[in-house]
Design a protein that fits this description.
By secondary structure, the chain is an alpha/beta fold. The chain folds into 3 domains: about 1-95, no CATH class; about 115-365, Type I PLP-dependent aspartate aminotransferase-like (Major domain) (Aspartate Aminotransferase, domain 2), CATH 3.40.640; about 375-470, Aspartate Aminotransferase, domain 1 (Alpha-Beta Complex), CATH 3.90.1150.10. It has 17 helices and 17 strands. The radius of gyration is 23 Å and the shape is globular. Residues about 1-40 have low confidence and may be disordered.
Amino acid sequence: MALRVAGRWLWSSSPRSLHSFTIRSFSSTPRAWSEKSTTASKSLPTPDPGPESVTAAFLEERTPYMVPTYVRPTPTFVKGQGCYLWDLENRRFLDLTAGIAVCSLGHCDPDITKVISEQADTLVHASNLYHNAWTGALSKLLVETTVQSGGMKDAKQVFIANSGTEANEAAIKFARKFGRIVDPSGAKHEIVSFHNAFHGRTMGALSATPNPKYQAPFSPIVPGFQYGEFNNVEQLNNLITDATCGVFVEPVQGEGGLRVATPEFLRALRRRCDEVGAVLIYDEIQCGLSRTGAFWAHSHPHFAGPENNHHPDILTTAKALGNGVPIGATIVTGRVSAAIHTGDHGTTFGGNPLACRVAHHIVSRLSSPDLQKGVEEKSALFIAGFDALRNKFPDVIAEIRGLGLMLGVQLSDKYVPRAAEILTAARQRGVLVITAGEGCLRFLPPLTITGDQIRTGLRVLEEAIAEVVGN
């Protein structure tokens, strides 16, 4: 019954009507709306639902059937609009995560909803055994927009997948195939990536993610991966060798703590890849598509240099590409695509007309100069607020990191273990924040966030930190 309730919520235009409908539906449930939860709500605007709540009953019925791959707080979201989410108890939350940099145009954007509806009523899937109207259109738009934006100057073709991990798996295969063409013996097969990187959880992408927490339970990982220190130029001659076929790097590390590559590091990677005949792969799954204020992060002014001599041979993207609709893409240069032949790779759902039409619409909007200018302005507002918080809590906040609306507030060593408490305190005041790396508060709001919403988020963050540290 509760599942049907949540499903109906998603179709309602009014959170208030959803709320009343749910209360009626759970009126016979002993756990519904206890005095305990009512009392808690008087002290905090959005306290986590307690054991006697509607949410607890809902989750108790369903979570036993779910493989426990995530530890989640109890709020259960059923509706979104713009920068806000509503939970099963009809409480509103300001979302400063955008579904981990996915919903860059906000939740339930009406134009995206219209595109989904129109295409769902036209054609959802026809398989890659045939052409459809949108796979090629999206590929063309990605290549043209990439080149016009000043990024990846030799972008030529695109492989459409279903997720960021799949886009990275394609990049790994393409790099290996390129290495095989250069050296048919197979000796040129090693992939280099960097500590604090995150490239995905399937076995190939996991093998490029040098984090024991992720790798150890699934060892042995795929052989042929080497790891280096992010932003360390001196190591590259020994790290990247004639056995290297590809080098994976995030221009801005997301899961690793919002660490920005130095321009010198990216240029040195490009130079060393050219010296040994390897391909340079940029994972822009989280940092791309105007998240930093430039269409691709590597084309941000921060990385500007002579002759654009830091551009990649392969670029991977996903997340914001579908604004919640699953899709990923691997963009390649002509010399990489020349190594890929019919049958070398494939996908059942990748390139389906629904996802590709949605992504085509989204790329057209995310490439807007006005939107990108807005990202820079909003970034400055966030950073000014974070600097003010660092001045107020100098022992708590050690560093502000990131670019655009991909920002991190790194806690000092003393308070790293208390990051989760700060997240909880913010959530119970109606603001959603997540972490990255070790004790880094991560901010990835929709790019459509307003100044007033930013100021609200900063105020709540200040309250949350003050509660946790006792100021």
